[in-house]
């Protein structure tokens, strides 16, 4: 071989390796097809690196639609699939075969599906499932035959994890997959039910719910499934047991009535309506933490001559269900107890403070306003978040002065809260305050202010009232100052204040 040819081959190798390195640094999954030809490069290092790059990019794909759009026109032949099988390890091979299974050529897809089944690799399963609805009959048959090879106990969890793929295919409607789906479901939930029950807690929430819905159609004689689901970590799974209320023990029913999820409690209560002690049971839910349950209990018990306000008041005296009782007083318009509620504004428990404030918003706006103004710049984020929606509707000069002072002197978190207040108030008066946020020392504050100004512009078309003279003058002064700083600091690629002066002409 001549020196020129040697140099050429070395140079090509270096160029290809550099190209692959660049794709690793900056590439996306849609670059995979540009790498595929390098799998057959003359240099082993290039082939191996190309395979690794494809595997790396492949793992970034998160939807079937991406597979279809990206791999249809990859330059892969039937012979290439045999080449992949001879030259790459199984973990890489599965990914290359998966890519091939979306090829525009039916022959390539058919060969890929056959080889996927032959890998006996759990990652092959979803790509075989996808081809069950292929528009070419031969590919569909190959996929059906291939899937049968995975119907063994060793692949049960892999099949479970892909149960959604079957349901998605049924929605396509190109091929009737009901029999295939029923066969897989029967294999999973009936033939291997014991395996599922043993490992049930190990599955993620969404999968546990899916399995529970499938298994509930054929509960075991001892209702072992219900015993498991009633203690499940997902409220959706626990709620599913209510469809089998007659099969639950009294302890399990009580457990659901005390469930931490208000939704489960609310679903469970009406199921007791035929019990003789139903109304007595409901009295325990008058001060439930869920507003819907409190309303439901009061609605059912409205003919019982019960003084709900007195119950809530006594709860406060006895330090029982305090937060729910404070809100309950507001819900029954018990303004006679507003002075009692005020005392809970200084409670050390934040959730109690919040409940007291919300109750006063309805029963004593003046007291709520005083508390809100005092705590507008509270060090407790949840308190700031609670009072801001109320104060934004007041937007007095006193509120604005306190907010502006808090923005100037506060921490970045407090500043963000004040920006939210300004944005909620809206209108001409607060625009300069958003503008000042764009020149703050903190980048997050600047970015948030720029976004809120963008929103302000969208809303400005609905501002049918012209700005007051003093508001217009303040805006012009602040805009002039801020624009000078933007020209100097170059905080943004594009100045977020561009075109704002238009609104104050």
Enumerate how many helices there are, as a single number.
Answer: 31
Strand element count? 0
Low-confidence segments: 1-10
Terminal CA distance reads 79 Å
Strand content: under 5%
Structural class: mainly alpha
Q: Please estimate the helix content.
A: 55-70%
Q: What is the CA-atom radius of gyration, in angstroms?
A: 33 Å
> Could you name the CATH topology of one domain?
Leucine-rich Repeat Variant
Characterize the structure shown.
- This protein is mainly alpha-helical and 505 residues long.
- The chain has helices spanning 3-26, 32-35, 44-58, 64-71, 78-87, 90-100, 106-119, 125-130, 137-148, 156-161, 163-172, 178-191, 193-199, 205-215, 224-229, 235-240, 250-257, 262-268, 278-282, 291-300, 308-317, 322-331, 338-342, 350-363, 365-374, 381-394, 397-409, 412-425, 431-437, 443-460, 469-489.
- It starts with a helix and ends in a 16-residue tail after the last helix.
- The model is unreliable at 1-10 (pLDDT under 50).
In short:
The radius of gyration is 33 Å and the shape is flat.
Topology:
Blueprint: H1 3-26, H2 32-35, H3 44-58, H4 64-71, H5 78-87, H6 90-100, H7 106-119, H8 125-130, H9 137-148, H10 156-161, H11 163-172, H12 178-191, H13 193-199, H14 205-215, H15 224-229, H16 235-240, H17 250-257, H18 262-268, H19 278-282, H20 291-300, H21 308-317, H22 322-331, H23 338-342, H24 350-363, H25 365-374, H26 381-394, H27 397-409, H28 412-425, H29 431-437, H30 443-460, H31 469-489
Task: Give me some keywords for this one.
Leucine-rich Repeat Variant; flat; disordered N terminus; mainly alpha; 505 residues; single chain
């Amino acid at each position: 071989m001549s020196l020129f040819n040697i140099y050429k081959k070395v140079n090509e190798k270096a160029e290809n390796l550099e190209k692959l390195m660049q794709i690793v640094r900056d590439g996306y999954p849609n670059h995979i097809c540009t790498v595929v030809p390098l799998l057959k490069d003359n240099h082993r290092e290039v082939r191996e690196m190309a395979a690794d790059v494809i595997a790396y990019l492949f793992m970034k794909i998160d939807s079937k639609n991406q597979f279809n759009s990206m791999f249809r026109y990859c330059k892969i032949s039937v012979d290439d699939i045999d080449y992949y099988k001879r030259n790459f390890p199984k973990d890489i091979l599965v990914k290359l075969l998966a890519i091939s299974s979306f090829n525009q050529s039916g022959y390539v897809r058919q060969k890929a599906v056959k080889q996927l089944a032959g890998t006996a690799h759990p990652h092959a399963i979803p790509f075989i499932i996808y081809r069950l609805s292929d528009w070419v009959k031969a590919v569909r048959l190959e996929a059906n035959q291939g899937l049968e090879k995975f119907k063994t106990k060793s692949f049960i969890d892999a099949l479970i994890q892909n149960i959604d793929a079957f349901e998605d295919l049924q929605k396509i409607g190109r091929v009737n997959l009901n029999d295939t789906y029923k066969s897989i479901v029967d294999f999973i939930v009936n033939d291997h039910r014991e395996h599922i029950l043993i490992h049930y807690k190990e599955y993620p929430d969404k999968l546990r719910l899916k399995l529970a819905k499938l298994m509930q159609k054929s509960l075991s004689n001892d209702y072992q499934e219900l015993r498991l689901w009633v203690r499940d970590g997902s409220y959706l799974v626990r709620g599913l047991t209510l469809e089998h209320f007659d099969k639950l023990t009294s302890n399990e029913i009580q457990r659901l009535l005390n469930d931490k999820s208000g939704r489960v409690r609310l679903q469970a209560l009406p199921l007791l309506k035929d019990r003789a002690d139903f109304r007595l049971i409901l009295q325990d839910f008058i001060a439930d933490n869920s507003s819907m349950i409190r309303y439901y209990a009061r609605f059912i018990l409205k003919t019982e001559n019960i003084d709900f306000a007195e119950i809530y008041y006594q709860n406060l005296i006895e330090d029982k269900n305090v937060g729910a009782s404070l809100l309950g007083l507001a819900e029954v318009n018990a303004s006679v107890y507003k002075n009692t509620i005020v005392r809970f504004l200084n409670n050390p428990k934040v959730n109690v403070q919040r409940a007291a404030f919300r109750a006063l918003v309805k029963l004593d706006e003046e007291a709520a306003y005083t508390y809100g103004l005092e705590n507008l710049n509270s060090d407790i984020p949840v308190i700031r978040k609670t009072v801001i929606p109320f104060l934004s509707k007041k937007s007095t000069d006193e509120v604005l002065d306190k907010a502006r002072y808090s923005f100037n002197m506060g921490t970045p978190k407090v500043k963000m809260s004040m920006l939210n207040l300004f944005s909620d108030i809206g209108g001409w008066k607060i625009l300069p305050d958003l503008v000042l946020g764009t020149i703050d020392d903190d980048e997050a504050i600047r970015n948030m202010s720029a976004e809120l100004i963008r929103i302000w512009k969208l809303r400005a078309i609905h501002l049918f009232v012209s700005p007051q003279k003093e508001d217009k003058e303040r805006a012009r002064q602040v805009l002039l100052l801020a624009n000078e700083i933007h020209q100097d600091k170059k905080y943004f690629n594009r100045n977020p204040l561009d075109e704002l002066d238009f609104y104050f002409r």
